[in-house]
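debug: dumping io for the single-chain case to check the tokenizer round-trip. Nothing else runs in this session.
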Amino acid sequence: MQPQGTQETSAAAIPGRLVIHPGWVLFAGLALAVPMGALLLRQAVRPELPVLATLPQFSLLDESGKRFTRDDLLGKVWVADFVFTSCADACPKLQGKLRGLQDRLIPPEQGGQIALLSISVDPERDTPEKLRQYAQAFGARPGMWRYLTGEQKEVERTVVQGFHTAMARIPVPGGDSHAEAFDIMHGERLVLVDRLGRIRGFYDADDPDAVLRDARLLTSGGRG
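debug: decoded output
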């Protein structure tokens, strides 16, 4: 369940205020893992994209159940988002945006220059099998659009410390003790990663032109 009343912003704008309700204090604390400088960067056309961070080593599972590490990112430009399969609002919208990007890639890009990555922020429930079904539902092309899950701690470390994107499980006050009484909060920005495993930008999913433009900059030579 994605909380209402918040919207992600592009790297070109300062984020708006979070709506204060139970759980947001924790979520806001995790959000501080995002480099503040990155939030102020302008995404205008420029000769180079700044290196914002380098992804650490991580070890997760892809939608086929195979091990997927940081080394598997190397050699391609990636656009990543963060979702979970039981989300009924924000996540399907994010997946729709990535599907739109997938459909706009030209054959050389589809052949390995640019790839898409979706990481589950609900790894305890999102098994590789669930992610495989989810990928099929959104028309993800095998090998080009990958889905990751894994141990909860490793996913949290990868998402928060690696991709500098907030995620948190927030208990629902007064929830049924026999039910899964928690909300999942997570960042909704797209993250651009270069061929060396470095983060080069954060983007509003409603501005696919910006992330696609910069992904192409990183594949054009001399800027990656």
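debug: round-trip ok. Confidence is low (pLDDT under 50) at residues 1-22, 24-28, 30-45.
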